[in-house]
Amino acid sequence: MVQIYRIIMVLLLQIPIVFFYSSMVEAFGKVGAECTECHKGKNATGATGIKKFHTGSTSECKECHVGKGPSLKASDASSTCLICHEAPQGTRNPTGHYVSTNTMDLRSGLLPSQLTPGGDFGWLKKNYSWKSSRESGSSPGERHGHNIVATDFGYVSSSAMRTSSNGRYPSSELSCISCHDPHGKISKGATAGAYRMLGGRGYKTSSVPGMVFTADPPVVSSPRDYNRAESMTDTRVAYGAGMSEWCANCHVSGCAGRTHPSGKCANCGRETISNYNAYVKSGNINGWADNAYTSLIPFEEGTDNFSLLTQHAQNNGSYTKGPEQGSNVMCLTCHRAHASGWNSMARWNMDTDFIVFNGKYPGTDNGSPPEYAQGRTSAETKWALYDRPVNRYAAAQRGLCNKCHTKD
To answer: Is 86 helix (H, G, I), strand (E, B) or coil?
Structure first.
């Protein structure tokens, strides 16, 4: 049964599958031994505060919080997660479930190693600055993603933002389990289950008891192998519906008028669909719909048909169709969920005029203007774009907002 638990834990960030509420409770509620994967001690009333008892005819391991509750194996929730989910030293994305690069691998000049769609939290530890005759600037690591608190691994809360954008979640309490439910319990009202074990409607963490989720997880599917470079083909995560609505549990809604529209209120109009499907790169708008998709600007398909999404979730280039009527913009169209190499965990550098300059990825090592390199080497720039060959873009490639807006 321990092996079953390990498989389920891999699902947290590896295998996207839809569970219904009852099956999630069954998967996580019947076994006692798996509690010790994250908690100290045995499943018995005592030092850890975990109590095993029977309900009806079914023996289940339930957590009864005695005092401060079960002791975690690490100093905090995120540190406990990273015991398994931080890549071992020297590991470069061979599997799907690593979300952070080993701290010892992040010396100056070295790249975060993982290429999951959500992004490597290691980017939070990469600080950049630059100065030129035109401008000076900085890109501190804490601006590169969600600043999880994982004391044992050197991750700390944001010094600039004290709460989430809607003011409901304190930054000092942000952890992996702020978004992911470690016990896999979905709200009974959920219709599509928990992608990546995301917390469902009614979910709350013990550290912020007053913060209760009001939206269910999105309907999404991704290919089994997704922690990979996109030098040959893109990794297509098939987003169906509900991503922005779920993000709004903690963030200002994209329908509130203060942000770029996203979610169900941001259906792609005829012009946006035409722009996306035609845009190839700066100066080239001769593309076609069947080959238009790029994972740097994903979109929701506007469906909760999980079987269909599973067919579309590919990493071999077999399904590259662009948006069509019913598709919509979402938060992850422009941002990564965990972290990226750029400010605001953007999928590309939104703070520069050119993401390719003079036919090269801007870098401190190839003579690029500092305002374009922005303190990064050309290798870091390329890796932050998931190892794409530079010839996919124009010699003077402007930002990828143009995929939808075509202003270059």
So the answer is: strand
CB atoms within 10 A of CB 94: 11
Element (H or E) spanning 55, and its range? Answer: strand 51-55
The structure's pTM equals 0.85
Residue range 332-378, pLDDT digits in tens: 999 999 999 999 999 999 999 999 999 999 999 999 999 999 999 99
Sequence-distant (≥ 6) Cβ neighbours of residue 159 within 8 angstroms? 142
Alpha-carbon dihedral angle through residues 242, 239, 116, 33, given to the nearest 10 degrees: 60
CA 101, distance to chain mean position in Å, is 15
Q: Are 116 and 338 in contact (CB under 8 A)?
A: yes
Rounded Cα–Cα distance for residues 205 and 226 (Å): 29
Indicate the DSSP class of residue 337: S
Residue in 96, 113, 97, 94 with CA at minimum distance from that of residue 105? 113
Is 197 in contact with 11 (CB distance < 8 Å)? yes
Maximal C-alpha separation, the chain? 75
